[in-house]
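User: I would dearly like some help making sense of a protein record. I have put the entry right below:
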Amino acid sequence: MAGLAVLSLRLVQFRSHRLARLELGPAPLAIFGPNGAGKTNLLEAVSLLSPGRGMRRASAEEMARQPEAVGWKVTAEIDRLGRRHEIATWSEGGAARQVTIDGKAATQTALGRIVRVVWLVPAMDRLWIEGAEGRRRFLDRMVLSFEPGHAEVSLAYEKAMRERNRLLKDGARDGAWFDALEAQMAQAGAAIQANRRAALARIEAAQAGAQTVFPAAELALVGPDGPGFPAEEAELLLALRDGRRADMAAGRTLVGPHRADLEAVYAAKGIAARNASTGEQKALLLSLILSNARALAEAGGAPPLLLLDEVAAHLDAGRRAALYEEILALGAQAWLTGTGPELFEDLGARAQRLNVLEAADGSRLEMFG
């Protein structure tokens, strides 16, 4: 059995799935069907077994099946290294989602200690050529896979920054208020940056030790003006204090981990990821996802769940086959989607298969193979 696997999944009123149930083994799951049938909705449901808003970053209200909009529920039985857990997460009437683990109320941070999930979705194909916000989010998802507590320090930082930004916009002059908030931001911000640096080191080590057709990336954490970025608590505290006047003029905080960016270089060619071809950019992304999974397996004894939506896009047949071999070698339960079964021929009998069809009352599932 895989180190981590979803053994059963039940959806109630979730997106296009009025009521759906899957019974699974640990092998990769190839999911195919026409566009709009509900394939990605299944992956999104699995992504909610980890902390956060899921791979679409949707609100709880948006996940409810329409037009009923009565709420939704996702229940899963998980096997992690031979120990089974029942996880349920749900929302009623658009309220914040609730979580139970083995029948007891739990935090999302607790989810991250049981289920590690790594995903790749088509929207991420433009990661290297769009704004820094998307790359920060991508980086922080990797960090969160290693350190579930990263979410808590990030929330603490954001809360203090919102209060500081409010004071800046109001033109407040009370230094004591700024001192207190900046101390909170410096402490949380230093923890954020330390978590990010540690995650990047683990990803790079996993890349260096891999024999793979997917290219390695040289990764760096930089600020908006280059590599000289305050990362230690004392540095960040000083930068915030010295920057009050400029921040007051801008009406927002101009320095801190919320301005960080992830820089990647295609190592073999020495070119920035943003200047690589579309296919090379996709291959770099897959390399990072696979390295993230390898690093997690080395650290915790179990690879994460891999959610790879429309993964065949921009991959030639050779690289697609190589990707499947890497997933199988890793021992991960991967959830892969595509429009037709031919995209998964190289998996042969080593994968489970699921056909997702449109029906009058929503998505319909046919499991076989």
About this structure: The chain has two domains: 1-116+302-369, 126-278. The first helix runs from residue 39 to 47.
